[in-house]
Amino acid sequence: MRYRNGCRAHPRVDRRGRRSGGHEGVDPVPHDEYDASVTQTTHDPIAPDAGDSRRPRLRTGPLSGVKVADFCWMGVGAVATRLLADFGAEVIKIENRKRLDTPRRLPIYKGEVRSYGDEDPNPDPDKGGLFNNYSRNKLGITVDMADPRGRELVLDLIEHCGIVTENFAPGVMERWGLTYPELRKIRDDVIFARMSGYGHTGPQAHYRSYGPVVQAVSGLSFNSGLPGREPSGWGLSYMDNQAAYYNSAGLLLAIYHRMLTGEGTEVDVSAVEAGVGLLGADLLDTLVNDRPSRREDFPRGNRLEHPECAPHGVYPARGEDEWVAIAVFTDEEWKALCAVMDHPAWAQDPRFATAAGRVAHHDELDGHVASWTADRDKHQTMHDLQAIGVIAGAVQNSRDLSEVDAQIAARGTFFELDHPVIGAAQFEGFPAQMSESSPDNWRSAPLLGEDNAYVFGELLGRDADTLARLAEEGVI
Q1: Beta strands in 71-121 (DSSP E)
Q2: Burial bucket for residue 416 (CB in 10 Å: 0-12, 13-18, 19+)
Q3: pLDDT tens digits, residue range 232-259?
């Protein structure tokens, strides 16, 4: 993550977003004064009608008053700005009707296409399951940046918002003339958050990437799998979601920096570097001990690289492709596990009496533990072991999470939003809960161009005739 700060203090902003003085050399805006100035929207939002819950409205939450001109697409950018939208920011997603955001065209679609690669029986850009997950709580506009009139609308929107986000292939924003120096000519306190596979500096900054490629380049794929086997990936686009949280953190740091100093910032996030940060002890082993990542006994699959932890692994449970994870760290935990297993004869083997002995004979120990777990329900094994202080967890699939897991249900991890096209659907929420605030999940993802009239008309001041003409001519 890289930052480049603006050099001028932020001109003070009144309650309606107008600049009121402020030049080079002025003192930064005090925290309490600046905070009061940004917690209002630029225009009084339209109060929603009783039967129209999709009308833009005053948002609530810790990020209420933050406004974002969001060029992000796919996952790594869209998930980052979703977090801001979840907690009250007015995130305005910018799309082009001539080139739809890829997740609008990807399954899974509710009740129809069930997997990637299947043909959509009823093409509709508002059905895409990934898009509807990534873009909840956001506003949506369409604009053609190739048309000078569309570009003018976007520049006005950037001035209105003061925060710009993007994760296009390297060079796209440059071709549009939307670099940080140019954006600072529009607003000198602008925050420009850029997200790419390799970052925007260095010899590979121009390389393109997707999630699986990022996993490979960052070392995650190479360090996954079993000894003697080829590297194993982590799923389709694991790093899209993981790097997104670094993007969110970078944005929040930039917003806080501006609150304290009045300065804008360019934030440059590399998804590859985010992946490197997930390598953990294995990377440290290479840096400190010069040991290779893949060797005869490593990676160890489900085992922990720990001198006293055994048994440690994932073991079969009753049913097809059902598993339970168990980790024993101490002699006391080992004795407790033996008691739950009703003290089988093999557990009395003196080789298993100490942690060192259990680690030395881990393969044989795993076979014995697996013979006990194989006939048991994975959740029951988890509950029985947790009750006596042994760390254990059922290996859960998506259906387990949504229909079985009582802890997930109790915390309200999944919540429902109604959508005009796909109807009611469930989405996963933010994994942290705060006592004095909560996500403002007010609307499902925007329909294509749904908020053009509100954003271009009510926020940017274009009249209805102008908007009708721009729509007819394909500009919006």
Answers
A1: 90-95
A2: exposed
A3: 777 777 888 889 999 999 999 999 999 9
Cβ(160)–Cβ(460) below 8 Å: yes
- The string of pLDDT tens digits covering residues 163-178 is 999 999 989 999 999 9
Q: Indicate whether 298 pLDDT > 70.
A: no
In order of 11, 24, 243, the CA distances from 27 in angstroms are 10, 9, 35
**Banded model confidence at residue 300, pLDDT cuts 50, 70, 90:** low
- Catalytic residue numbers read 240
Q: b vs e for 75-88, b when ≥16 Cβ sit within 10 Å of the residue's Cβ?
A: bbbbbbbbbbbbbb
Answer whether 147's CB lies under 8 Å from 155's CB.
no
Q: Is the Cβ–Cβ distance between 269 and 243 less than 8 Å?
A: yes
Query: How high is the pLDDT of residue 27?
Result: 31
Instruction: Provide the sign of the torsion angle of the four alpha carbons 400, 402, 408, 409, taken in this order.
Output: negative
DSSP for 294-311? SBTTBS-TT----TT--S
Strands 423-428 and 67-70: unpaired
CB of 248 closer than 8 Å to CB of 254: no
Q: What structural domains does the chain harbor? A: 2-277+437-472 (3.40.50.10540), 312-395 (3.30.1540.10)
End-to-end CA distance of the chain: 34
- Give which of 104, 109, 134 is closest to 120, Cα–Cα: 109
pLDDT, average across residues 274-279: 90
Q: Is 377's pLDDT higher than 90? A: yes
pLDDT band at 44 (very low <50, low <70, confident <90, very high): very low
389: left (phi over 0), alpha (psi -120 to 50) or beta: left
User: Can you read off the two tokens belonging to residue 245?
Assistant: 């949280």
